[in-house]
């Protein structure tokens, strides 16, 4: 019998208990059934997914979850159940209760609002609400990249087709969930953003991209979210993969996808959750018993069985049989068990599970969440074109003129009162599930019609009330333009035509083009006939069709979204939303020549704005640039008499918000741009270009300028262009005039747990045999040889860094390496935790609030490559630095500014790369036009 480690309760020695923790199951019905009770009590089921079929209201949900947890507690479960929920907002919300649960825009709608901080607030609000009724795991954020955005059924559930934008908003949402105390689950790995339906629409969709293509696009948000260390779980999809290097029928059953790609390549250490194994195609091809074993063998920790009790029992018996047959080892089960229990520890406890705050908390927070919802929807509505200046309608339409609303017959979204009514009136066993379906169900059911007129009927009523005039409303279907439509179009002065995924419901595209042509003909005959097209789901319906002169996108058609649309149409709200991803960028190229007013940075006026800007950047750039978390406005101000510094801002003079910041330094003929960044929500509108041109102009005007440098070690925020995002940034700087052919690599490294580190075997003996000795000096009095050495072998800002360190005699010193003749071979700065130097080198500051998490510094080792045994000298300096850091009670060491390939011998000592940069030096002649 496998012996359990001391960290696990002896109860788990019983494999039946351990297997129960590896299952995620659901059921149909709003009350606890004998079947779900049996699964919890007898099969020790540890995780439950609730769907819209289980939930009637917030109060009923809280009572239901409390009952489930009480059953588990009475059955002897050591830890509470995981209670999971799809609550993505937009069209995918399992819990709907207009009195207590707020509706927010879809992921794409949030991106359209252009504010990642708003996305964070929405996620935190959503998680706080579902946590109040006992939910502790949200199946989100959606991290899929819509690689082929126009035709993908995932639609507005995804952020956009831009991997970096998906990363930014996905991480913001994940942080919001975590800060509300709820566990997170990224989905749908490796991507549902570019699925091909090669056979019938009932077949399994296929990813045909190569691994290289996936790595450059679809996998980027998953990689970035994993790197934050805050992603608790990953939902592995059930799609197939077919490319030259991988042929997989079901991703969640493949060790190539789960163990190799997700865990080994991307470094994911959390809980892997499978797609529902009740999928018809999987049941027919493999069978649930074998499929469950395959999933666990592939590396899945939680096997998901949606709702069929007989299938769930089949899966349990399959797992037990897999153990008996030796296909699944006990060690494999306990590996998954530890992951699941670790996630439970992070998001729940018995005290929390049995006593959710419920309605009392929801009542208290509802007003503020409602205000956030209204703001989010108002900010998300995007007017893509208004060539005829038709908005607002109240600006030109008389009350007596008739307004016609044409809407398609579509399924209502799950997060609407219409759906709630339908579920209550049609609660039959054969009713198709509305919420936790595979995302390609829309593709399969696109021909079906289910009355969604309720939402659009209320849209018509609201619009009529808002404009105090007459409104005509009728629906249209695949039957095209009928006589009734022609009659109403002839009567109306303005037609509002609604589409919902017209790219996949082609009858809508044909109907819209037909109506557009009719309006053009009637206008040519002298009639007043204006057309406004509103895409209430995918924004891609007519985004690129310039023949549609006025085009609005709402990104979902819940009642809340339609209310925001009315406010935009009638002028009570000015729309600010934009198209997502690359479409946004393609529009903003038109604005790329605009110039922003650049002002000199003023500490008293701008410090608060810069602090806010840095915080926004830290959220947006995680995990690529974690050092931004510890950067503050004073980091950039050296106040060094040998360094001339000038910093610039683009700001909103009305609100004092900073949209961009650039720091520059001039020293001994070298002009340096030390930092250049722009508010993530204000990119692609030339703020960075305006800042850089002003900064370069100021440097070029310096007398004696010999070269311009991108990146600096003092202050050490950006040593150059971060390699994590080098492709896009390098292209931007190249377009701005920089020659980027000859980069200098600079690396920050770390020893994460200094107490566990020991010198590599034989290193001390090698140093002794080479007759290399070391000493530590403080102060400038005996530092002439050190400063001469640095001046001869490094840049002028590095020399100033050494001068600064030598003056800080209490917390900093310089270690010298000498040969037997007492000649200087190399130098390095050592600083103790909390040194003044850390104010200017953010990696030396801990991003946590733990006062015991102390970081020691080993800064700017200078060892000329021509030095005999240069690598050994460098390793010796690093060794002395680590010893000094240990002596100063540091728990970690950061080695900053390692030049070129010198980081490689340090890797052999146990250092790890923290972040790497590429620094560039150019001639001022590249920017003669600025002189």
Automatic annotation (TrEMBL):
GO terms for molecular function: hydrolase activity, hydrolyzing O-glycosyl compounds. Residues 16-342 form the Glycoside hydrolase family 3 N-terminal domain. This is Glycoside hydrolase family 3 protein. Belongs to the glycosyl hydrolase 3 family. One of its GO terms (biological process) is carbohydrate metabolic process. The keyword Cytoplasm does not apply. InterPro entries: Acyl_CoA_acyltransferase (IPR016181), GH (IPR017853), Glyco_hydro_3_C_sf (IPR036881), Glyco_hydro_3_N (IPR001764), Glyco_hydro_3_N_sf (IPR036962), NagZ_Beta-hexosaminidase (IPR050226). Keywords: Glycoprotein, Glycosidase, Hydrolase. It holds the Pfam family Glyco_hydro_3. PANTHER family: BETA-HEXOSAMINIDASE-RELATED (PTHR30480), PUTATIVE (AFU_ORTHOLOGUE AFUA_8G04060)-RELATED (PTHR30480:SF8).
């Amino acid at each position: 019998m496998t012996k359990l480690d001391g960290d696990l309760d002896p109860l788990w020695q019983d494999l039946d208990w351990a297997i129960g923790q590896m299952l995620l199951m659901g059921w149909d019905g709003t009350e606890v059934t004998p079947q779900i009770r049996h699964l919890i009590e007898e099969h020790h089921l540890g995780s439950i997914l609730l769907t819209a079929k289980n939930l009637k209201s917030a109060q009923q949900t809280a009572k239901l979850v409390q009952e489930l947890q009480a059953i588990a507690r009475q059955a002897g479960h050591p830890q509470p159940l995981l209670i999971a929920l799809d609550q993505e907002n937009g069209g995918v919300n399992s819990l709907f209760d207009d009195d207590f649960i707020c509706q927010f825009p879809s992921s794409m709608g949030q991106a359209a609002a252009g504010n990642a901080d708003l996305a964070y607030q929405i996620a935190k609000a959503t998680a706080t609400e579902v946590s109040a009724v006992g939910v502790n795991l949200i199946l989100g954020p959606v991290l899929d990249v819509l690689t082929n955005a126009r035709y993908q059924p995932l639609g507005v559930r995804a952020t956009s087709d831009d991997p970096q934008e998906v990363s930014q908003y996905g991480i913001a949402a994940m942080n919001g969930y975590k800060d509300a105390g709820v566990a997170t689950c990224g989905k749908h790995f490796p991507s549902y953003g570019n699925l091909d339906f090669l056979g019938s629409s009932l077949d399994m969709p296929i990813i045909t991209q190569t691994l290289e293509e996936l790595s450059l696009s679809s996998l980027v948000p998953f990689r970035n979210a994993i790197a934050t260390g805050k992603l608790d779980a990953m939902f592995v999809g059930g799609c197939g993969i077919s490319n030259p290097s991988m042929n997989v029928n079901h991703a969640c059953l493949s060790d190539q996808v789960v163990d190799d790609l997700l865990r080994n390549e991307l470094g994911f250490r959390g809980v892997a959750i499978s797609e529902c194994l009740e999928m018809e195609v999987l049941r027919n091809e493999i069978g649930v018993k074998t499929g469950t074993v395959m999933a666990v063998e592939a590396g899945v920790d939680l096997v998901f069985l949606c709702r069929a009790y007989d299938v769930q029992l089949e899966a349990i018996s399959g797992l037990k049989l897999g153990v008996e047959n030796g296909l699944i080892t006990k060690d494999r089960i306990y590996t998954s068990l530890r992951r699941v229990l670790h996630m439970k520890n992070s998001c729940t406890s018995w005290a929390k599970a049995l006593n959710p705050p419920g309605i009392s908390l929801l009542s208290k927070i509802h007003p503020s969440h409602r205000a956030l919802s209204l703001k989010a929807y108002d900010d998300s509505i995007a007017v893509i074109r208004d060539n005829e200046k038709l908005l607002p309608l109240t600006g030109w339409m008389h009350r007596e003129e008739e307004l016609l609303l044409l809407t398609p017959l579509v399924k209502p979204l799950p997060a609407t009162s219409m759906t709630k009514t339908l579920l209550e009136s049609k609660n039959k066993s054969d009713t198709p599930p509305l919420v936790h379906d595979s995302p390609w169900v829309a593709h399969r059911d696109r021909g079906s019609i289910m009355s969604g007129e309720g939402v659009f009927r209320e849209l018509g009523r609201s619009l009529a009330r808002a404009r105090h005039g007459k409104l005509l409303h009728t629906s249209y279907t695949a039957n095209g333009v009928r006589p009734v439509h022609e009659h109403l179009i002839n009567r109306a002065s303005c037609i509002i035509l609604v589409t919902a995924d017209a790219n996949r419901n082609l009858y809508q595209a044909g109907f819209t083009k037909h109506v557009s042509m009719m309006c053009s003909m009637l206008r040519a005959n002298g009639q007043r006939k204006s057309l406004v097209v509103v895409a209430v789901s995918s924004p891609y319906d007519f985004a690129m069709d310039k023949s549609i002169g006025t085009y609005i996108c709402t990104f979902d058609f819940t009642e809340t979204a339609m209310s925001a649309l009315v406010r935009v149409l009638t002028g009570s709200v000015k729309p600010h939303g934009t198209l997502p991803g690359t479409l946004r960028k393609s529009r903003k190229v038109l604005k790329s020549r605009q110039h922003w007013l650049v002002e000199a940075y003023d500490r008293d006026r701008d410090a608060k704005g810069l602090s806010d800007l840095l915080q926004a950047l830290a959220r947006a750039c995680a995990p690529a640039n974690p050092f931004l978390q510890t950067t503050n406005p004073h980091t950039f101000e050296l106040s060094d008499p040998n360094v001339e510094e000038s910093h610039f801002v683009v700001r909103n003079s009305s609100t004092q918000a900073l949209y961009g910041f650039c720091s520059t330094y001039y020293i001994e003929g070298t002009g340096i741009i030390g930092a250049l960044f722009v508010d993530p929500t204000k990119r692609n509108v030339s703020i960075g270009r305006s800042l850089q041109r002003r900064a370069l102009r100021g440097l070029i005007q310096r007398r004696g300028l010999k070269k311009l440098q991108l990146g600096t070690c003092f202050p050490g925020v950006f040593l150059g262009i971060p390699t994590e995002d080098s492709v896009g940034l390098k292209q931007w700087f190249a377009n701005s005039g920089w020659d980027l052919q000859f980069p200098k690599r600079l690396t920050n490294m770390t020893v994460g747990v200094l107490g566990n580190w020991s010198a590599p075997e034989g290193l001390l003996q090698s140093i002794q045999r080479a007759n290399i000795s070391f000493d530590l000096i403080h102060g400038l009095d005996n530092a002439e040889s050190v400063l001469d050495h640095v001046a001869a072998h490094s840049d002028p800002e590095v020399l100033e860094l050494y001068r600064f360190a030598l003056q800080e005699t209490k917390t900093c010193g310089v270690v010298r390496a000498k040969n037997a003749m007492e000649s200087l071979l190399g130098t390095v700065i050592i600083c103790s935790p909390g040194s003044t130097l850390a104010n200017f080198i953010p990696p030396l500051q801990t991003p946590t609030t733990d006062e015991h998490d102390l970081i020691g510094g080993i800064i700017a080792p200078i060892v000329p490559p021509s030095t005999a045994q240069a690598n050994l000298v460098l390793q010796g300096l690093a060794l002395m630095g680590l010893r000094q850091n240990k002596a100063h009670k540091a728990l970690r060491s950061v080695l900053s500014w390692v030049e070129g390939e010198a980081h490689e011998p340090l890797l052999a000592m146990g250092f790890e790369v923290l972040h790497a940069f590429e620094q560039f030096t150019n001639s001022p002649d590249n920017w003669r036009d600025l002189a």
